[in-house]
Task: structure prediction
Amino acid sequence: MTETVSASSPVLERRPVFSWCLFDWANSPFPAIVLTFVFPAYFASAIAVDAAAATSQWAFMIGAAALVIAFASPILGSIADQGRRRKPWLAVFTAVLAVGSALLWFVRPDNADAVLLLVLVGVSVIAFEIGMVFYNALLPTLVPKSHVGRVSGWAWGLGYFGGLGGLVLVLFVFVQVETPPFGLDKEAAEHVRIAGPVVALWLCLFSLPLFLWTPDPRGRGLPAKAAVREGLVVLARTLRTLPQHGQLARFLLARMIFTDGVNTLFAFGGIYASGTFGMSVEEVIVFGLLLNATAGAGAFAFGWIDDWIGAKPTILIGLAALVVIGVPLLLIETKLWFWILGAALGIFFGPVQSASRSMMVRMTPAGMESEMFGLFALSGKATAFIGPWVVGVVALTYDSQRLALATVLPFLVIGGLLMLSVREPTSAEEFSS
Result:
């Protein structure tokens, strides 16, 4: 299938677009297994001193990683726009992510290994997020703007199902079986620790189609040193003139706030389930399966809605739903209601994230994709340490996971209110309107 939109528009070709979407499938077991469900639950139940300590230590690690990402991602994105290709950068950070995930095998169920786990996860998070700058920057070169919403939604939905597939593999092949394969020792938690290498192998295998078949348009072709110098100059100029681009600046500010809330809420799902509801690693993985299934379905469905009603209404619907469902989720006492509300909450994670990406694509001028998505990453990480650190401080001060996670809700509300003032563009020419 090929659809030509105009002489200046990208051509929608099936194999390159599918290969691009498949990368979301490839890297999504990392946030599902390492960042949200398996290793946070393992950390809280087998490594950390108690639930409050696990919550605070995890929070400070996530916040520190976010701080590094906030500084690095826009600089690297700008440099890539001045250089030759984006895929080599993506390959480097994908390799770091794979190695960091694989090394989690060496984290024993011992408090002495807490620092090792936190360092490995922190480095891997940085590689994952910076890699996404270059991955996202490929999207405007692949599809016409009329199809951005659905393709972004397809990729995000495929990513959630990739996380689902990784969780299914870990649960039914390693964690839940009476006798784990390969002689894995349950007493040493090897049936859980093997999830790290599984993430690494999954990533390496399913990322190959993108590197083989998704095109990578040339940048300006500057040599490395010149690209670094020019990239930094352009980034400084972009940041200096950003206030003149009213709509884009307002959107990035709103996203900076509500994404902090969304990411914090998602990052602490496994620790909250384990610490507050006493769920085992196996139960947390099953909950992760349910959450990823509903999140994937929501991302797929709202991808079409995004192209129909626009990215801004899609984002606002998602944020409103997260608040409405999130309040009772912090108040209920039973596992059953936690499962029900958690599944409902999952439906709206994907649409908020996917529609944010599609809106950014529509607001990005041609030739500035990596630079703009560097700023996009910056808006998602510039204050991303605040949410986790607030959660960590409240958890330490009041010894309450519920109260700690309640601090997420104001980020969603304030970000949503700021989105009301953003006018969604109909073309990239409205970038500076």
Notes: The beta strands are 2-4, 11-13. The chain has a mean pLDDT of 83.
